[in-house]
Amino acid sequence: MPIDKAAVGLSLLKDAMDAFIDNAMSRVRRSVSLEDHTPEAINYLSTVLGRDLPQPEPGSEPLSGNGDDDEDEDAGAFRQLGGEADAPPLAPPWFLPGAEAVWLRIADTERTLRSLVREVYTSSFGDTAAATIQEKLPERARESLMRALRARPPGSDPLTVVDYLYLGQLPPLLFANDVWQEV
């Protein structure tokens, strides 16, 4: 791939991931109550920051600043973030309609990336493709990969190493100096 097209390839990956995150976040809405409050966390932050922080109190009403009683109906929003105080709990986003399509798209993208890594490294490095992939990984990732590869069946194709990589490790392999032109 010529250098002037690398930005297009990156934008294709970035746009798809941004769309997935935006879609997932638009469906997440979690209510928070004082039942989940941990005073110790506020105390710790107070110590680290070197100043007193107020502890929320159950049943306390937020001050409106102007004393209007019209805002009483909005007071619940301050006590419980993410929705109305009387709203039912929301389903996790992976159970919402349309989530299956998102996960299928992620799986398809992952399979395509793995296939592309295999194809590019095989065409560039031939029989040493698997070893080259391992060499391109950072040391800690390589150590983790070596532990995972112990579960690989004996006699497996050396390029099955790609199946043991994390999804986040695939794009850097494709943008490595000696292979990005082939992508």
What can be said about the biggest beta sheet?
none
Number of strands: 0
**Total domains:** 2
Number of helical regions = 7
Q: What gap, in angstroms, lies between the N and C termini?
A: 5 Å
Q: How much of the residues is beta strand, in percent?
A: under 5%
Give the fraction of residues assigned to helices.
40-55%
What's the SSE pattern?
A: HHHHHHH
Q: Structural class, from helix and strand content?
A: mainly alpha
Oligomer: single chain
Mean pLDDT: 75
Radius of gyration over C-alpha positions, nearest whole angstrom: 25 Å
Low-confidence stretches: 60-82
- The outline comes out as elongated
Structural descriptors:
183 residues; 2 domains; 0% strand; elongated
Task: Give a written overview of the molecule.
- With 183 residues, the protein is an all-alpha fold.
- It has two domains: 3-23 and 96-174, no CATH class; 34-89, no CATH class.
- It is 50% helix and 0% strand.
- It contains seven helices and no strands.
- Helix 4 packs across helix 5.
Set down the secondary structure blueprint.
Blueprint: H1 3-27, H2 39-49, H3 75-79, H4 99-125, H5 129-136, H6 139-149, H7 170-174
Helix pairs in contact: 4-5
Summed up:
The chain is mainly alpha-helical and 183 residues long. The protein is built from 7 helices and no strands. The chain folds into 2 domains: 3-23 and 96-174, no CATH class; 34-89, no CATH class.
